[in-house]
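Troubleshooting log. The previous structure file for this entry was overwritten by mistake, so regenerating from the original sequence record. Sequence copied from the archived sheet and checked twice against the printout by T.R.
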Amino acid sequence: MLTQYFMILFSVFSINALHISFWDNNLTETSSFSTLTFKLANVTQLRQAKTNGLSNLYYAFWFFYDPLPTGYVLRDDWQHRWATIESDVSAMYHDGTIEGFFLGDELVYNGLNLSSLAFVSNFLRERYTNATIWYNEAQPPVTTGKDRFGVVHNYSVPASLSWLSVDKYHEDGANKSWVELVVKPFYDNYVFPRLAPNQSVAIVPGAFSSDNNPGCNRSCYDTMCATDATSFYNWARCSARTICFSIAELVLLPSAPLLPLNTCDSPCMFSLCSE
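Regenerated output below.
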């Protein structure tokens, strides 16, 4: 039986650490082979994760943003919502249970205005000076400024943000040159120029499958995703601006090997999809 997760591999080069996590992390299944969570906001679960040796980013989205059908907005009652949890959050931050905050996924693409994005990031930075603050974005706002409603934003990265990740995938089969020819230029042209020297990126290779793509069946997707992830990972550990390596929608068994931290010119061979 296959178990599907959103897997995150954080390679923090300054301390030579490798963090491994999963979207919607089920700690009973993944705590023995992961090191970080970013989708938890429950104090008991966060403290248990810390007891199990995991690092944590607090999932702040629901306390600040409202995902309305017409677009994400800053909640009118965000101050009340935050007040109900602030003492717990402060205690967990200062005792090391959490190391920062995950703001959410594809925020501007889903209509959130840039002032509301920056407001929350700034709000948290002012209170938690050394916290890691991260959010993930879709590609269109970064390249054209356009969200899914057709509204064009003058996209920029809040100065208070620590990490930015941007979804960029393909579905046309394995290509060992795709990262070199497509992804790296995307980051060079649209992402890195927007970052301050103290900010880093998370690169996000896809790991997914489809029965509806006539040009790529499940076996093709498996090969493509593994090829891409290998290329992404080898690039990430050689890049001074990349602090985390993120795999979306990964199919993985607990027995799958962890990725080695070795020299940049060493081959990194591993399987992403197991049955």
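Residues 1-18, 243-275 have pLDDT under 50 and may be disordered. Archived copy saved in two places this time.
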